[in-house]
Amino acid sequence: MTITPELIAAYKSTDFEVQTPEANIVLRADQTNPEFDKFLQSRDAATSVVITAWNPWSEPRSREENEEAQRIMEDQMRNAGFVLLPAAGVDPTGDWEPEQSFCALGMTEEEGILWGTRFQQNAVITHEKGRASKLCLCQP
After folding, report:
1. Using CA atoms, how far apart are residues 50 and 22, in angstroms rounded to an integer?
2. In this structure, what is the dihedral angle of CA atoms 124, 128, 129, 133, given to the nearest 10 degrees?
3. Distance of alpha carbon 42 from the chain centroid
4. Rounded distance, CA 108 to CA 127, Å?
């Protein structure tokens, strides 16, 4: 599937809501987030990745298929040792249903791209403490 400029724009306009024990924190591509940086610091993490298994290659799937794919991804990521927080990709216009996601603490950009590719995602959102969150494409 070709990732169109419109699809990239949609990803970049998405609010990525991460549910920390203290608060819900919204990450956005190309924006810094000092509140999330403090949270990462409190967990001795420098990086994180927001990732979903919903709607592979941005092709709509049923809720049941999406939830099953998400459960499989969660099991595999926890078995790989990642600490996961609930998250969601939310369209601020409300045109599409929020996609259940996870924020994997300590996951690097490279690892995020590999996991995104494994679960047939076009992109993931990475965050490195002190830097802007970044949209990373998982396919050329």
Report:
1. 18
2. -50
3. 20
4. 9
**Nearest-angstrom CA–CA distance, 140 and 32:** 26
SS3 assignment, position 107: coil
With tokens 């216009």, the residue in question is: 93
Statement: the pTM of the whole predicted model exceeds 0.90:
yes
Residue 79 sits at the vertex; the CA angle it makes with 33 and 55, to the nearest 5 degrees, is 60
Main-chain phi, psi angles of 117, to 5 degrees: -65, -45
**Over the stretch 50-103, which tens digit does the pLDDT of each residue have?**
999 999 998 999 999 999 999 999 999 999 999 999 999 999 998 888 999 999
